[in-house]
Fold:
Amino acid sequence: MAIADQINPISPMGLTLDAYQALCAREGVGPGRAKTAYQAIYRDGKTASPPAKITLPTIVTRHEEAVNEGTTIKFVQRLPNPDHRLANRGIDFDDIESVIIPMIGRSGRKTHTLCVSSQVGCALGCTFCETAQMGLIRSLSAAEIVAQWWAARFIENIKIDNIVFMGMGEPMDNLDQVLKAIACLTDRNGPALPMSGITISTVGRVDGLERIKEQVQKPGWKRLGLALSLNASNDEVRSRLMPINKKWNMQALQTMLLELRQVRGWRKIMIEYVLIPGVNSEDTHADELAEWMSPFLKDPTRKKGKGHGGLLNVIPYNPRRDSPWDAPSDELIDRFVNRLMRHGVFVNCRRTKGRDSMAACGQLGTAEIRKRKLISLTTQGRTDQEANAQ
Ligand code: SAH
Structure:
């Protein structure tokens, strides 16, 4: 019997083929055999192919909702909570949510975007966001992030074209594991997603953006997408909505984005703006926002007729549970968007897909898991320690 048949199974979840082969080599399994096993898991959807074996979290809830483009599917995976301290308090599992969103592209082709979570809960406390209400429980490992793709691809049986880190959590608070997951997701022998199909969405931690600046200069990473959740047109409003703004304000963000643009061209960076009636939706806010975006509207490096100077994505607010604010009316959205366009800002409006299912932006966090508010609002420390320990 070959040695490889006697060894314990080795999971490739969250690993690149190179990393998997290195792990296998330590157990005496050759690179060829490791590659075949790796491909069986990621290409053929097998859960076992010696020495590879994966264990998947159970899907505890699944919700489908018909939308114009097809069907939005939200699924909740139940992960073990490895923290015994929490287990003593009756918390011995973690639920995370992922959403598969159908889209029709400009060419009419139907694509599917998977919205993944990077943490259980979130530490950042944005006042309009459902996930923030539960606080941070823990960060996910790269394997747990990639397992969301695996479930979408092989349990839901849907080919995923794009992945956005817009589910639960702040990717910049768990950047090591998020980057590791992306390396796996884009591995040609594995999930093989194009780098251009992946977008990290962030509240705008400037230290994290510095790291992204380094990362996108590495081979293969140039086309990674970035979305910045700006959500306000001035510091007073932004600090009220997003406490992180007290640490890195709008000026700091603008400077950082201009720097990033030097490296890699503006087209892969998108600004997100959750439109909340009575909070950030006045004409004056649109004017201020256009002013803040003005340095990005002129791009001397851009070829004539190619792309656009700056891209703003307006997201109509989905009222979270117990929200003091309503959803914006269509008239309000149109008025805000038109005013920005008159200033020359290229605006895209992402209408809600899945409002009823709580699968919409910022709605991730069930009543059940929300009760478990545990960890205070910090941005580093614990999160990174946990991530490194994985
Ligand atoms: N922490 C990351 C990713 C998760 S939130 C970030 O902040 O970008 C993903 C997007 O959903 C962000 O743009 C966020 O501003 C938006 N969002 C959060 N709550 C929302 C809500 N209630 N309605 C609409 N969009 C919301």
The chain has 13 helices and 14 strands.
